Each structure stands twice: as C-alpha cells, then as structure tokens.
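The aim of this short unit is practical: by the end, you should be able to scan a pair of folded records and say something sensible about each. We start with the first protein, listed as its amino acid sequence and then its structure tokens.
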Amino acid sequence: MKSSKTELISFLESFPLYRKKDFSQPKAPSDLTVAARRAFVSSQLPPPKGFSLPQIIRIEMPCLQTCGDRRTFERRLSQDELVGRSLSGAPVSDVMEPRHAYRLAFTCTHCGEHRIFFLIHVDRIDTDTIEGFSLTKAGQWPSARPKVDRALERALGEAVAPLYEKGLTLEDHDFGIGAFAYYRRVAENMIDKLLADLRAYAETTGAADLVKALDNVTHGTQASMRIAAVKELLPKTLRPDGLNPLGTIYQALSDGLHGRDDEHCLTLAADLRTALDFLITTMASEKATAEKYVAAVRGLQKAAAKKTKAGDQ
C-alpha cells in the first residue's frame, strides 16, 4: 500500500509514542450495493505485502546536538545497509511488513552529523470495508519527551518546572488523569506568585478594584477560594476573546478527579495548561517590559542629572 507522504511525515514529526496511526482506505466505493462491493473487492489485486515507504522522506526536527535549531532531516541508510542493497540490487524504497518493527534513520541535511532514529511497528488493517496498515512509533532517539518553553521555565522556577514537564509527558501519551493532577499541582504551587504578579499588573494598569480584592485575600485561604474572590475582576487585556483563564484555573482547582476517565481529564488538562501558560507568560512579559522601561527612564534621568551638574560647575 502506498502511504500518504504528508501523513507519514506528520506521524514521524509529531505523533506520540505507543499510539497507533492508521493508514487505510476503503476496499470499495461506499455507494455500491453489498453484492456489487463484494464483486468489486474480488476483482482487485491481492492486498499489498506491507507498508511501502517513499524513496525520499524529509522531516523537520530540532537539530539540538549540532545546529541548535530546527532543520530538515532526510532518511538515509547506514553504510552497511547501502552495501547490502548494492549487492542485492534492491531499491532504496522499503516495504515494512506487518508484525515486524523497523528502524528508520534520518540525518540532518545542514550539518550532516546529527541523526534521529525511529523504531516503527507495523500492523495490518483488514475489515469488511477497509484495508491498510497501522504504524506505531515504538521508540525514538534522541528522546522526544516534551520540553518546557524556556521563557515559561524561567517563570515557573526550578521547583515547579519539572512538575509541569511531567504533566506535558503524560498529556502527550494520553494519560489524562495523571496530566491533570500534575497541572493542578503546578497551579497550587504557583498561586502565590500568580496572584502577586496579577496584583502588580493590576496596579500598573490602574485596576483599583482588583488591587483591593487581592489585598483582601489572605495567604492562608484555600487556593480555589482566593481565585474565586478575584477571577471576575480580571482585566479585559487578560481575557482574550472574552475567555477567563483565571476562571479555568479556579474550575480545575475546585473539581475533583473522582469518576473522571482519561479522555475527559485530557481535555481538562489541556484547558488548564493553556490557561496557566497564558497567564504566567503574559504577566512575566509585562513585568519584564515594565522593569526594562523603569531602568531605561532612570538611566536617562541619571544622565540628565549628571549633565546638569556638570553645567553648573
């Protein structure tokens, strides 16, 4: 079976480990009667032996060891494989047969040094209506474990960033309950800093009601109750398209995990992560911009004072 090259590239670049990706097609047009469909299927060639890889596959991946940026990687055979192919006269294109695992190697086209390896397991799909193959990414090296964005990592701090990264990993593998639990822990650990940064932001933007509400919230109060007291006063600039990220965090901290399945928790985890990302990075950026502005103005004032003092002498 010939693969959709675009789908295969997307699978290699971003599909998580251990989740099957189907590459299938209908055995016959859907508008045929049952009898006509059977006749159509019986008239076709035998099913393909395996999943056919294109001769040339190029993917975009980070070249962290050498280039330090995203680069184009091309599938290249090792020297031993090239010699074997040459002696046998076999084409470069592979057919990956079901119930086997295959190693695919890609080399950075920029530096020619950094290599990425995938271990792909193949299964056959054969039902009354569809046929094809499913691929599972059984391994990847260097590790594809998701990393926290550097700006967000700095804002989270050394103690909390590893918890966030574990949440990312669990979410990437569809473990919704575990991912949601880790993101909740991140929210609980970040609540003091989050509200302190929110107060500084409110004070800078002149949101007096929010400043007053935050001052009335004690540190000893339960996190969800503290958020409840201020979430509706969030400035419009922190409510993209009318959405309230603080409300999302409040909901996550208020609800329990009892009776929730992985699929439901996966949606909750993604919502909570997105809300945390937005609030933490936005306020960290605003704080950095304000500090840079203050430093610049004070520098200008100092230079002006120095110039005035020199003129008076």
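Turning to the second protein, read its sequence before its tokens, just as you did above.
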Amino acid sequence: MTGTGNNTLATLRSLKAKRLRRKIFAGIALLLLFFLGFFVVPQLISLPDPEYARIRQYGSQSIVQSSPAAIPAYAGADYVTLNEGIPGFNEWELSHVSGEHYSPPDSLGRCGPALAMLDHSMMPAGARGSIGSITPTGWIQKKYPGIVDSDPPYLYNRCHLIAYALTGQNANERNLITGTRHMNTVSMLPWEEKVMRYLDTPDHHVLYRVTPYFKEKELLPRGVEMEAFSTDDNGASLCFHVFIYNVQPGIDLDYATGESRRDETYFVLERQSAIGYKIVIRTVSREL
C-alpha cells in the first residue's frame, strides 16, 4: 500500500508540475502577444515608406509645402485654381513614381502630402469599411441641424486625401484628415470623379497628389491642394491644380483647435413688404 500511495502522490505532483508549467508558458505567451501588439507591430506599421526619402530628395513640392502664403484667402468660392491649373510635378516624378506614398505624421500628429501613380488596378471592387477608429487632428465633432445636410447633421467627416475609390485605402491614419462635410462631399468630389472616370480605362495612369494645408500649428486644415496629371498623353486628358477650402457655409471654424460655432454674420434677415422675411446668404471673406 505504501508503495502504491507513494506512486499516486508522485503522479499527482507530476500533474501539478505540468499544469504549473503550462500556466507559466501561457502567461509568457500572453505577455509576448501583448508586447508584439502594443509595441512591435505599431512600430512596424509606422516604419517609413522606403521610397519616401527618394521622393523627398528628387520630387517636387506642392505650393502648400513651398509657398503657403501664395494660397489665396478664402473669398466665398469652394476652390481656386493654382498655377493656371498646371500641377507642379517634375520629370523625375513623372518617370519614377509608382504605387502610393503617404507622409508620416508630423510632431503634432498631422498628415502630410499623399502622392500616387494611380491606375485602374488600384481601384477597389468592394464597399469601404469602417474608418471610425481613426481620430484625425482637429476632430471636435458637433451637429448643426438645418445647416449641415447630412443625417445626422455632423459637421465633420473623416476625409481621405486620396479617395478610397482610387486606391482602396481604408482606415489609414496617414490618409485621413478632419474635413467639413461640405469640403468632402461637395468641393472635393467633382475633382475625384474626374480622376475616377479617366481611370475607368484599364491602361490609363494619373500622377496624383493631395496636400493638406495646416497653417503654422493649427490642428484643422485650411483646405487641400489637389494636383492630377494623365501621364499617358502628357496631361491632354486630365490636368488640374486646385486648392479646396475646408469650410462649411453657415459655420465659423476655429482652425487652431477644430472648435466651431454657428456664424451669425452669415445669415441676414431682410424684410420684404409682400412676403415678410426671407433668409439671404451673404458670403463672408475669411483670412487664411
């Protein structure tokens, strides 16, 4: 009996030791996964684009990058044409850029220029996924019923620099800025659609750059500079260079923070002898 009892006790101890080792190994595995998930993987994701340094060295600069003071002050129009509509790309970019390239965020977490040589194969077949996990700088969301035409009437959209429909980039923090609904769905969309239509032909290519304009240390962009050039025919089919203003009619924006409020100076009541009151929209010039 004593020998049998000792054997049973030894077996129990062995099982407990195995269970303890399993728990230790499981704990180590969890710690390793935690380390990879929170430290290593984010660092790998944020590694610089291997072509980014070459683009910075040999490529051109947008007007926002080189001469931001040359961007005209907002005067009521959704956009202005820059450089007579001619993009600022140089010969190196036209012959060397391929794929898509997104600037790393600056010290304030703000996006920089996004550059791509677009073609039909990059356009996604499916619907866009969720981008709600990304919080771009200047994101202080508010609702404005009766002024913003969405439902619910949110002021801001997470606005792609290079549209999802052109590359399939979804929740890429380097490609998303805080833009008003007006800028995103009214002002930028017609230009993006020009590019989409051209790329509907499989063998077409477009050199494309979108640069957000953050004045000094502001967190909300004043707008975006958009450049497009069809490289197949030296710009004959598609060539534009515009600056789109990040505004929402009827709303006053604080570009330093992203705060907003109803712009009471935008709406003026005018008494009419026959019909009473009507709302008259008055354009207010804003300093850039």
